[in-house]
Task: structure prediction
Amino acid sequence: MEATLATAELDAPVLPENPPPPVLWEPVVSQYDDGAAHVVVFELPGVPAHSLCICQEDGSVTVSGLYPWKARLTMPDEGYARFSTRVQLPGDVKSKAGETTLWRDLLILRLPK
Result:
């Protein structure tokens, strides 16, 4: 009987003490080819520029930052939620040196081929 209890205890899910918050929001992402470069546009309404982190590696680009809860979602508390969005890039993007523009609520990455 004790062996059965021990097995049952091992099968029980272990929940973290402070689980991460659920994903509440992801930006809308558009991609297009302008001939000389691959362009990726992230819609980031209300996201503070100083919270953005852009990382390009292994054929993809990841944009992360802080999104204001109360501004867009019905939440009980004001504050920010973390977001992270990864976009796969086409194989012809060769350079990590690209142009980054933040215009209004749009983050525009222009990555040369």
Q: What stands out?
A: The helical segments are 2-11, 69-72. The domain at 25-112 is CATH 2.60.40.790 (Immunoglobulin-like).
